[in-house]
Design a protein that fits this description.
It contains 7 helices and 13 strands. With 260 residues, it is α/β, with parallel strands linked by helices. It has a domain at 11-140 and 182-199 and 224-255: Alpha-Beta Complex (Spore Coat Polysaccharide Biosynthesis Protein SpsA, Chain A). A hairpin with a 2-residue loop joins β2 (36-37) and β3.
C-alpha cells in the first residue's frame, strides 16, 4: 500500500474505549486496544494501516486508562499522522462515540473501525464500492465460525445489505457473513444516531438504517481478522503473528516505531 487511495476518506475514528474485562489482568493497567500482539499494541497496527491508506487525520475515543494511549501516541507525529482524542467519562457506545465527533468529520465521508479487532485487510476495494454505490453506509464483512458473536448480514447479489441482526440466537441465523466492525459512513448517518445518551451501531443504528430506504452496502473482505475478547483468542493472535499470517505493513521497516 504505497499509494494513498483517491477514494479513501480523509478522516477515521478508531473505537478504543473498551475495558477488556475478559482479558484481565492484562487489561488492569491498559485499555483493551493497548494489549501487545507481536510486541506492539493492537492500536498501533490500526494507526499504521490507516496511514498506509492515506488517512492521516485519526480520532481515537478513550475511556479506561486513557493516558496509556495518549502517552504512547501523543500527537501522532512519530507515525506521520495527526491524532485527536475523545475521552469519554461515561461510555457512549460505538455510535454515541461517532455522534460526539460529528464536527470533526466536517460533513465528509469517514471511516470507523473497531480497534479491539486485529485485522489485515486491504480496504481500498471497500472504499471504491462505497464511492460507486452511493451508499449511506458500506460495511466490511467476513465469514466466521461463530455468527452469534457479532452482527450477521444478508447481502443481495448487488452488494446491498438486506438484513442485519446483532448477536442472533441459534434459530435466528440466516447468514454466514458477519460485520467486521469496519464502516465507511456518509454524514447522513447522524440522522440515524440518537441525539443523546449511549447508542450502539449493531443494536440501535444499523438495523434501523437497513430497514429504511437509504442504501446500505457490504463487501466480504479478503485477509485476516480475529477478535481479542478472550485469553484464548489473544493467544491465538500471538501465535498467528509468530507464524507470519499477517502481512501488515507494521511488520516491515515502514511500520513506524516499535512499542516503548
Amino acid at each position: 500500500m504505497n499509494r494513498p487511495d483517491a477514494e479513501a476518506p480523509a478522516r477515521a475514528l478508531i473505537l478504543s474505549a473498551g475495558r477488556g474485562e475478559r482479558l484481565r489482568p492484562i487489561t488492569d493497567d491498559r485499555p483493551k486496544t493497548m494489549v501487545l500482539v507481536g510486541g506492539r499494541p493492537v492500536l498501533e497496527y490500526h494507526v499504521v494501516l490507516l496511514r498506509e491508506l492515506g488517512i492521516r487525520d485519526i480520532a481515537i475515543n478513550l475511556h479506561h486508562k486513557p493516558q496509556v494511549v495518549v502517552d504512547h501516541f501523543q500527537d501522532g507525529s512519530r507515525w506521520d499522522v495527526t491524532i485527536r482524542y475523545s475521552v469519554e467519562e461515561e461510555l457512549l457506545g460505538t455510535a454515541g462515540a461517532v455522534r460526539r465527533l460529528e464536527p470533526y468529520f466536517a460533513g465528509e465521508p469517514f471511516l470507523v473501525i473497531y480497534g479491539d479487532n486485529l485485522f489485515d485487510y486491504d480496504l481500498r476495494p471497500l472504499f471504491r464500492l462505497h464511492a460507486r454505490s452511493g451508499a449511506l453506509a458500506t460495511l466490511g464483512l467476513f465469514r466466521g465460525p461463530n455468527p452469534r458473536a457479532g452482527g450477521i448480514v444478508g447481502l443481495e447479489p448487488s452488494g446491498r445489505v438486506s438484513r442485519f441482526l446483532e448477536k442472533p440466537r441459534p434459530d435466528e441465523i440466516f447468514s454466514e457473513l458477519i460485520s467486521a466492525g469496519i464502516y465507511v459512513l456518509e454524514p447522513g448517518i447522524f440522522d440515524f444516531i440518537p441525539p443523546e445518551g449511549p447508542s450502539d451501531f449493531g443494536k440501535d443504528v444499523l438495523p434501523k438504517l437497513v430497514d429504511s430506504e437509504e442504501p446500505v452496502f457490504g463487501m466480504e473482505l479478503e485477509g485476516y481478522l480475529t477478535g481479542l475478547d478472550t485469553p484464548e483468542l489473544y493467544e491465538r493472535a500471538q501465535a498467528d503473528i509468530a507464524k507470519g499470517m499477517l502481512v501488515h505493513p507494521i511488520t516491515t521497516a515502514r511500520g513506524a516505531p516499535s512499542s516503548r
